[in-house]
Amino acid sequence: MDSTNQKQSDPCIMVIFGATGDLTKRKLFPALYYLRKDGFIPDKFAIIGVGRQELSSEEFKSQIIKDLKGFVGKNTESEIIDWFEERTSYTGGDFDDDKALFSDLKSLLEETAETHSIPKNIFFYMAIPPFLFSNVAAKVVKRGLGTEEEGYWRRFIFEKPFGRDLESAKQLNSELLDLLDERQIYRIDHYLGKETVQNILVFRFGNSIFEPIWNRNYVDHVQITVAEDLGVGTRGGYYNRAGALRDMVPNHIFQLVTLTAMEPPVSFEADAVRNEQAKILRAVKPFSPENVLEETVRGQYGKGIIDGENVRAYREIEDVDETSDTETYAALKLTIDNWRWAGVPFYVRTGKRMPRKHTSIMIQFKKAPFMLFQDTNVQHLRRNRIVLHIQPDEGITLHFGAKIPGPVVQTGPVDMDFDYSDHFGETISTGYERLLFDCMLGDATLFQRADMVESSWRIVSPILDVWNAIPARAFPNYEAGSWGPAEADELLANDQRSWKNDID
Ligand code: BG6
Q1: How far is CA 45 from the centre of its chain?
Q2: What is the number of the ligand 1 atom nearest to the C-alpha of 247?
Q3: pTM for this one?
């Protein structure tokens, strides 16, 4: 997986559809900046922004460079900014217009390749709404821009969400596969760009002490939490149609589930890793309508207080209907029906407006036998836990019990902590660097394959069906600033377990 052994990407041109959008300024340009700074992008590189707005290249550049300086902050290096200015251009127009925009793009690509002596390697980044994906890709392909000839490559990155449900994801896959080869398609999930997410595989398979206990013989259950203190911001329109389940579960959360649960791949080759991830998705027991009622929970936040600030209810934000039934919280109990995980539930949850940003994977082990402690002051033994902290502080913690010093036998919980920043220093990253670089290298390991996307929707679609058929009761059902609805606690309490909210 260490493609960073290779010093630089191939010379290439990056075309960004949706160049005036949020993602381009907040993530893509800063990620390119850091890649260039660290020497991963060669001089023979250029960026063409494509958007709906009719802007000149100069206008686009001045805006994007201003944003870039804002995001990188006071340490922005002017040499790199100049470098970007020299090789960025823009063309704008109507994406539906088959002629003007796409022939302008073709001419601009030819001109750019010539000016910067760049061979015809091109990757197209679709930072646009999913309903435009195949439409725009078809127009690119129609101009011959998707064809790989004379050893040059053409690649397409698609942002999430990839479909709304199983049917639409299948349709999108089939439309794209009519236009392109699977190896040209990169379905991005920015969670795979996070260092600690990538570290899951190294932690599990690069050490010999964890894997022998990473199974149903030792593990009691697994909890995966992706909590956000933020709300929906200005994305009410998108979010209200999506909801927490679609927005986070078939993509980010399932990446965490599969990397935690998968078998060792035979190599770090893209397909070897993705085959093992795909097997986990296939092994997740499908939800029957009864299971949906018993093993899933949805919630929506009402008003509340976060960090001492009053926060509005979800139904009060812009572009959200005051009777909206969209969930801002989802919790599921997943059953992975395979040899390693039989009988070990994976509880996953995600929510907006929770007390703090916190993403972690907790492996809770079974209890040690108690008989040795029967005649001591010890009331009960705590279970061991390994917590993989994904964000905001990246690290790994092992929780175990130790004897409290003194003449009587008493135990107390203690931790062994590994903190990424202590060991490796602070690394500044948007999470997109590695993914953009991998795409330029042609390494699809950290991207989703068509079958994985469809398997994910196969798990989630039956839940959406039941949730759509039976309107949510009593929304809003959790206060902003709380850990979610009471039903989510009951989900675990029914199994004599509880969510761990205090695992820093
Ligand atoms: C995005 C979702 O994919 O991930 C957002 O659409 C969510 O709703 C975001 O806030 C979370 O990403 P991160 O990297 O901040 O955990």
Answers
A1: 27
A2: 6
A3: 0.91
